[in-house]
Write a structure and sequence with these properties.
single chain, about 300 residues, alpha+beta, 7-stranded mixed beta sheet, about 10% strand
């Protein structure tokens, strides 16, 4: 698929590579790129293996700027990423994509964008914006979910949330890495080492850098929040275990004197005078009850119950 960058993207059957003022966008599969790369005259021999793409990055070449994208699936961040490559120069940009992801983004741009001052820089800005267009809402949903988990922990109305919190933390880590890579790419574009972009239009890349920086900061903050929630749940478990241990200690302390009495008078020595007294049994019962009552009063005053 070929497009010219005008007030919007306009489809073209072929690209006039001699037209200096007509910026183009091309979307090719890996096979199409191998067959047509000489036409773009970018001075690169880029053999694309999209299965080997694992990161988002940009590399400056003598006559072009090349790179790759590795975009997490926002519906399931832990699933395999969508990978594609690109190459650009002052004439336009070529995407090499076998997944159809780039075509979806371009369709969204065509249906939602009209440019008063069309340019290659503005198209790239809108393309990058489409990748992260729903991330603010995504992070807000994560924040609300973490708030709910925290409230449930404090109210004691939740089972072990460790698995869910761990999954959220892992997703946030993947997003943070993705934003760091987008930051590097955006800064590389803003640097404009080959002077492919007009200086006044590099402000678009600066705007995108600022937005990604904010998303990165929010993601890092939410990841710290998820760690705090894990620690909160662990502290609640520790408190619960401490209460159980306190109760067991109190019960043991109450019955220890009774055990001593039972053991003492269970020896049945011949010359134990208490064994001959008629009142010995009720007296021992009374003493045992008094010990229990005194112990309970003592523990209550110490706030151990």
């Amino acid at each position: 698929m070929y497009y010219y960058i005008k007030n919007t993207l306009e489809k073209a059957k072929i690209i006039d590579f001699k037209g200096k003022n007509r910026k183009f966008v091309a979307v090719l599969t890996s096979m199409e790129w191998l067959e047509n790369r000489e036409k773009f005259d970018m001075g690169i021999e880029m053999d694309i293996d999209l299965s080997a793409v694992h990161s988002t990055k940009a590399e400056v070449n003598y006559d072009s700027l090349t790179g790759t994208f590795s975009v997490p699936n926002r519906d399931d961040i832990s699933s395999p990423t969508t990978n594609f490559a690109f190459a650009l120069d002052e004439k336009g940009i070529v995407f090499i994509d076998d997944s159809g992801f780039v075509n979806k983004i371009i369709s969204n741009i065509i249906s939602t964008k009209k440019w008063a001052m069309p340019s290659l820089e503005r198209f790239i800005f809108d393309f990058l914006e489409q990748i992260v267009s729903h991330d603010q809402q995504l992070l807000e949903c994560v924040d609300k979910e973490l708030d709910t988990i925290e409230s449930d922990i404090l109210d004691g109305e939740i089972q072990d949330p460790s698995q869910r919190v761990s999954r959220i933390r892992s997703d946030l880590r993947d997003l943070r890495v993705h934003y760091e890579q987008l930051l590097d790419l955006s800064q590389e574009l803003e640097e404009n080492e080959n002077n492919f972009f007009s200086k006044e239009n590099t402000r678009y890349f600066h705007l995108f850098t600022q937005r990604i920086s904010r998303l990165h900061d929010i993601t890092a903050s939410l990841r710290e929040y998820s760690i705090q929630i894990r620690d909160l749940y662990q502290s609640k478990l520790d408190i619960k275990q401490n209460r159980i241990m306190t109760l067991l200690t109190v019960i043991t302390s109450i019955f220890m004197p009774l055990t001593l009495i039972a053991g003492w008078y269970g020896m049945n020595f011949k010359y134990m005078p208490e064994l001959e007294y008629k009142a010995a049994y009720p007296v021992i019962i009374a003493v045992s009850i008094i010990i229990v009552i005194v112990s309970l009063i003592f523990f209550k005053k110490k706030k151990w119950l």
